[in-house]
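Worked example 2:
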Amino acid sequence: MRFGVRRTYSQARHRVGRRMALRRYNSAMQTLDNVRIVLIETSHPGNIGGAARALHTMGLSQLVLVNPLRYPDPQAEWRAAGGTGLLRNARVVATFDEAVADCHLVFCASGRERRIPWPAMDAAAAAREIAAVAATQPVAVVFGREANGLNNDELKRCHAHVCIDANPEYASLNLAMAVQVVAYEVRRAALSAGRVGRTAASWDRLPATHAEIEAFLAHLERVLCEIEFLDAENPGQTMTRLRRMFARIRPDDTEVKMLRGVLTEIERKLGSRLHRGDE
């Protein structure tokens, strides 16, 4: 009897353990479903197919193509192998902003040094942050053109840059290879977060989306020009540095609305003052 009781208890513990492991795995897969890989103006369809295969092997499912040169294309299908379903579901859009508009965190893959340094981290550290946010909100990782990567305007629209630690004597990775490295690290981070029960830090408001931040920055630049803090003809690096500051802070949606309310009130005061001056 005692042996039977021990066996029953052991089986019960095993069943509970399997259920908990399944819940953690499902949680990790939900996190991966929130991770969006964005390819900007890819020129070779084989690289699109290779990226789709890389994502499929790591359990990611969202691929967005910004203005690809050749897509759909048989070479993309051939290179995708088992990832053809993911490839066929890829979303094609016209612009960077359209691809990431609803994302609360945007990383970009870049090894380029900038005149004004931007927040940067290696693939493993970036993946941990991506997994933490993607547990509840959409996140994007953006990859640039095969020949020259992302331009300066695109790089500064990201919260941080992901750098892949490669041989300094030859650090050039094929696009699909780079996607594979980042996807692998994101999968590891998502599964690790599930095992230790780690979740994103709680906050009373959602982080502002990319579209909300872009609208705020455009509003801010307009007001700074109106009060002549900025010279519209020669603005220098002021807006780039302000953009970097807000990328580092990552304000929530309510904070962005408050800031835009302040800007609107400044515009109203300026308008009434100009109106009195005309009388």
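The chain has two domains: 12-196, 210-278. Residues 196-200 have pLDDT under 50 and may be disordered.
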